[in-house]
Amino acid sequence: MINLSPKRRVSILVHILGWSMLSTVLLLLSPLSWRVEIPTEFWIKQVFLAVLLIVIFYSNMLWFVPNVLLKGKFWLFILTIILASILFIGLLIYLDNFLKLPELMHKAFNPDEPYVYKGRRLSYDIFNVLVYLLTIGISTSVASVQKWQKDESLRRELDQQRINTELSYLKAQINPHFFFNTLNNIYALTNLDVKKAQEALLKLSRMMRYVLYENQKNETLLSREVSFINDYVELMKMRLTEKVTLNISIEEPKDDLIIAPMLLLPFLENTFKHGVSSQQPSEIMIKLEVMGKTVFFETRNHIFPVHSESPESKENGIGLVNTQRRLSLIYPDKHRLKFGIDEAKQEYWVNLTINLE
C-alpha cells in the first residue's frame, strides 16, 4: 500500500477537484442547458476530450516544460505548441467524422429537417483551441512555479548548510581564543597569589562546563549567558590592581529570552585586554540592560597598547571579527553594532543592540 504524506494527499485532492470543476464548466454545463436529447456519441466525445486535455496538461507540466522551455529552448517550445494545437483540432475533427456527430447533433436540434453538410463552424474550433491553450497555459504556469519552489527550497537548504558550517567554524575559532586569554590570565595570577589562582581555576571549570554544553547549541537562555558573563568578570577582577576602576552594571533578565551562546564574550575580552595597565590608572565600563525582548550592551575602556611579545598581540582581533560575522548570520536584521575610538578621552567604545524576538 502506498503511504502518501498529508501534503501529497492534499495536492492530489486539489488536482482532482480542479479537473472536476474545469470539466463540469467547459464540457458539461453548457450541453446540459440545451434541453434536447443529446446522443451518446456526444458524451463519448466529451469524455475523450476531457481525457485528452488531462494527458496534454500533465505531459506538458511533467516533461515538456522541464525538458524544453526551462532548458532555454523557447522557440522550440512555441513551435511545438502551435503544431500540437493543429494536431489537436485535427484529432477532434476526425473524431467528429468517425462518430458522425454533425449529423447526430443536427437531428437532435432539428429532427424535422433533413441533414445537409454545410462545413464546420469556425467558432466551435476556436473554442476548442482556446480550451487547449488554457490547458497549456495553466500547466506551464504550474510547472514553472514548481520549478521555482524547488530551486528556492534548494537554495534555502544550501544557504542553511553554509550558515551552519560557517557558524560552527566561527565558534570553533572563538573557543580557543577564549581559553587562550583566560589561561594567560591565570598564568599571570600564579605569580601573584596562588589561592586566587585556585579560585580562578574553579571559576574557569564552571565556565568550561558552560562552553562544553551550551556552546554546542545554536541558542541558550539569556540568563545563563549573563551568569557566564558574571563569572568571566569575576575571574578578570582577580588579576586587576587597584589602579583599575570597574563600573559594572549587568541586569539579570527576568524573562526566558533566547540568545546565541558566547556572543558577547569577545567584546569583554577586548575590554580587559586593551583597557588594563599595570602602570597607569584606567576605568572599564560594562553595561547590560534588557528592555522587553531587546538587549542593550555597552562597553568602554581606555586604550593601552598590548606588549609586542605577548601572544595576544598576534591575535589581530579574531574574536571581534568572528562575532561581527556571527551577528550578521544569526541576527541579520535584528541587531545594531557600533564601535569606535573617542579620541578626546582615548577610549574605545562598543554599543550593541539585539532584538531577541
TrEMBL record:
Superkingdom of this protein's organism: Bacteria
Pfam families recorded: His_kinase (PF06580)
Keywords from the named record: Kinase, Membrane, Transferase, Transmembrane, Transmembrane helix
CC annotations in GO: membrane
Entry's Gene Ontology molecular function annotations: phosphorelay sensor kinase activity
InterPro entries: Bact_2-comp_sensor_kinase, Sig_transdc_His_kin_internal
Positions of the Signal transduction histidine kinase internal region domain: 166-243
Residues passing through the membrane, by range: 12-34, 46-65, 74-95, 126-145
PANTHER family: SENSOR HISTIDINE KINASE YPDA
Record protein name field: Histidine kinase
Species name: Algoriphagus antarcticus
